[in-house]
């Protein structure tokens, strides 16, 4: 089974189920697409959308594509379409995703993006499979979840159907490991490109099994070794580790390549939105320390554009050194564009007090009062956004639950703010 042929066919498959949306999509196909197999007599085929999270990092994008491919090869009486959970116009921002896809000859025209689909799924027979996240506006249609972060206390989780199968594995460093385990469980389908994509993703997500970062478990390492056996059986352990390091450096360089991006695009490159009943908080993952980002020319204007209409924004910086053995560094920045210092301080105190795990936050050596924000070095480099996001959500929910509406304590939105997203 060919991955490229499957992706081309997916676009055609989608047009059969959603003809109006497909016809109005700005993403016109430039290459002939093979027709999907006709439905068997007396059998109603079902559409399954496999969708990653809104940051669309390499783990999310690869997990969506490869899981859809695996399921399509094993459940031939159903249709599976992978979806990248970003607007098509944002694809160039995902530099490491585009890099790996280009290595596998996957072009943008082969891919389905979030804006190729309707805002709401009105057909209850469409099944949704979530990978690398479990909070989604299509919760009522979700039949399966594969994720490696703890289950959130979010209203959307309450809308998941009773029959939804949840594979939540917080100890894993990469969602691609979960997908890889399904890939290796049976002999078919097999694809050299799928093997390459899964392998690269786990290497990047685990920071190449860095003992300092500790973002992996035994299952992540075992999966990479199995995938390496599929790629090259004749290499010894030393050669495999050398090639792994070379691949990791290549992916880190691709992810950090912001040479063709504006600072506003850098902020959007790895962005997630924390949504509560009355708050929308954009959280930007940066390929550098936030403290270094604010020293760049025009950083303040980019931040104001990124957080337009919000009362709080969060920058999560991570610097991965290009040399082997270098120390990974992380930091956190909290900024209120409205100058709402009590909210920033309340979130800061909650992060400082966090013990599951402790973030070990300390002031930067180079202090700053940039935009009245709070900038902290994170010395526990093992903690990631999935640990920080629930802490901030809890603070906001506690404020919203307060019986008094004191504007010194909490800021309410009358409508959902616009984040300058495409």
What does this structure look like?
By secondary structure, the protein is of the alpha/beta class. The protein has 2 domains: 3-17 and 44-252, inorganic pyrophosphatase (n-terminal core) (Alpha-Beta Complex); 263-406, DHHA2 domain (Diaminopimelate Epimerase, Chain A, domain 1), CATH 3.10.310. The protein is 37% helix and 14% strand. It has helices spanning 3-17, 19-24, 58-74, 95-103, 175-185, 192-205, 218-231, 237-256, 263-269, 290-293, 299-306, 341-353, 385-401, and strands at residues 47-51, 79-83, 127-131, 142-147, 165-168, 271-275, 280-286, 313-319, 329-335, 361-363, 374-378. Strands 6-7-8-9-11-10 form a 6-stranded mixed β-sheet. A 5-stranded parallel β-sheet has the order 2-1-3-4-5. The radius of gyration is 22 Å and the shape is globular. The two termini are 35 Å apart.
């Amino acid at each position: 089974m060919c991955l490229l042929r499957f992706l081309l066919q997916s676009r055609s498959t989608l047009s059969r189920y959603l003809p109006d949306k497909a016809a109005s999509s700005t993403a016109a196909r430039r290459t002939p697409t093979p027709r999907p197999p006709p439905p068997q007599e007396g059998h109603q085929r079902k559409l399954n959308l496999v969708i990653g999270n809104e940051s669309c990092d390499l783990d999310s994008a690869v997990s969506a594509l490869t899981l859809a491919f695996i399921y399509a090869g094993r459940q031939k009486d159903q249709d599976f379409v992978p979806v990248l959970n970003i607007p098509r116009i944002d694809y160039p921002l995902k530099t490491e995703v585009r890099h790996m896809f280009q290595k596998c000859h996957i072009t943008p025209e082969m891919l389905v993006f979030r804006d190729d689909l309707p805002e709401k799924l009105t057909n209850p027979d469409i099944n949704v499979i979530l990978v690398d996240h479990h909070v989604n506006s299509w919760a009522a249609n979700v039949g399966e979840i594969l994720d490696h972060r703890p289950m959130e206390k979010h209203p959307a989780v309450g809308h998941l159907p009773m029959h939804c199968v949840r594979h939540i594995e917080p100890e894993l460093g990469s969602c691609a490991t979960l997908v890889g385990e399904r890939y290796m469980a049976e002999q078919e389908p097999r694809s050299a490109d799928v093997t390459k994509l899964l392998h690269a993703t786990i290497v990047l997500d685990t920071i190449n099994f860095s003992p300092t970062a500790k973002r992996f478990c035994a299952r992540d390492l075992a999966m990479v070794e199995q995938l390496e056996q599929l790629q090259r059986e004749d290499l010894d352990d030393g050669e495999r580790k050398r090639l792994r390091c070379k691949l990791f450096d290549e992916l880190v360089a691709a992810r950090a390549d912001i040479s063709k991006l504006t600072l506003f695009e850098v902020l959007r490159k790895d962005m997630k939105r924390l949504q509560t009943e009355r708050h929308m908080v954009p959280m930007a993952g940066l390929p550098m320390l936030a403290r270094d980002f604010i020293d760049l020319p025009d950083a303040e204007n980019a931040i104001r554009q990124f957080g337009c209409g919000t009362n709080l924004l969060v920058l999560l910086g991570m610097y991965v050194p290009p040399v082997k053995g270098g120390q990974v560094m992380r930091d956190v920045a909290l900024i209120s564009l409205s100058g709402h210092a009590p909210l920033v301080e309340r979130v800061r105190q909650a992060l400082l007090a966090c013990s599951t795990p402790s973030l070990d936050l300390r002031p930067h050596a180079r202090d700053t009062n940039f935009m009245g924000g709070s900038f902290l070095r994170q010395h526990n480099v093992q903690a990631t956004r999935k640990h920080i996001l629930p802490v901030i959500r809890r603070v906001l929910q506690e404020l919203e639950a307060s019986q008094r509406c004191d504007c010194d304590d909490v800021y309410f939105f009358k409508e959902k703010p616009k984040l300058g997203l495409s």
